[in-house]
Specification:
By secondary structure, the chain is mostly beta strands. Helix content is about 10%, strand content about 55%. The chain has a single domain, classed as Jelly Rolls (Sandwich). The chain is built from two helices and 16 strands. The longest helix has 18 residues, at about 1-20. About 30% of the residues are buried.
């Protein structure tokens, strides 16, 4: 019995490792000046006056926040644990899924008027923004995204056990997508952000299975 338990634990650990994405093998888009990867945890000083937004409401386009990514085709599930020392309005850290400069989404925490907000920006040529204001600050948040067919569902969790959906949006299918941690500091001089336990899990193509 003891040997069976040890074997089961080893198999579970192997399966979890297979889902984990090594941050060291990922690539930067807008690499920040100061960052470190240790024990598969990314910490960075977020680039000052950086952001992602296209056209709508504000009338400008910016595409210069630090984004560490791997590229995935087809359908997948990804999640990450996020924390940050947010200081200034619009300081943000989260998860980005990106096809190109006109088609992407970012989801995570955004600090606005002294409050923590669960934030999602979805962009198809122009950007939109949805928020859920939290009653109090949190030390960290988990964000999960599930890409199925031509849709992406975004979820949040405070414990990596119970997940609540915060957005379901259209995103073109059958094209490669960059995915990984992202941060931005539109109005400030930078802040420290940390990203842990980043995972990407392949999902078998839904159309083929049906």
């Amino acid at each position: 019995m003891k040997n069976l338990i040890i074997t089961a634990v080893a198999l579970f650990a192997t399966a979890m490792a297979a889902n984990a994405q090594s941050l060291e093998k990922m690539e930067w888009f807008n690499e920040p000046e100061q960052w470190e990867i240790k024990d598969n945890t990314l910490t960075m000083n977020v680039t000052p006056h950086s952001d992602y937004w296209r056209i709508s409401h504000y009338g400008f386009t910016v595409d210069d926040g630090p984004f560490l990514h791997t590229t995935r085709g087809g359908e997948f599930e990804t999640k990450i644990k996020i924390s940050g020392e947010y200081k200034v309005r619009f300081d943000q850290a989260g998860l980005m899924l990106r096809i190109d400069h006109e088609n992407w989404l970012k989801a995570g925490i955004e600090y606005v008027d002294g409050k923590y907000n669960l934030s999602v920006v979805v962009t198809h040529k122009t950007s939109d923004w949805s928020v859920i204001t939290l009653d109090k600050p949190v030390d960290y948040i988990w964000i999960k995204a599930v890409r199925r067919l031509d849709a992406v569902k975004i979820f949040y969790s405070f414990d990596d056990k119970t997940y609540t959906m915060m957005r379901n949006c259209w995103m073109q299918d059958n094209v490669p997508m960059m995915v990984g941690p992202v941060a931005a500091c539109p109005d400030g001089e930078g802040f420290k952000a940390k990203f842990e336990k980043f995972e990407v899990k392949h999902l078998a193509d839904k159309r083929r299975l049906e």
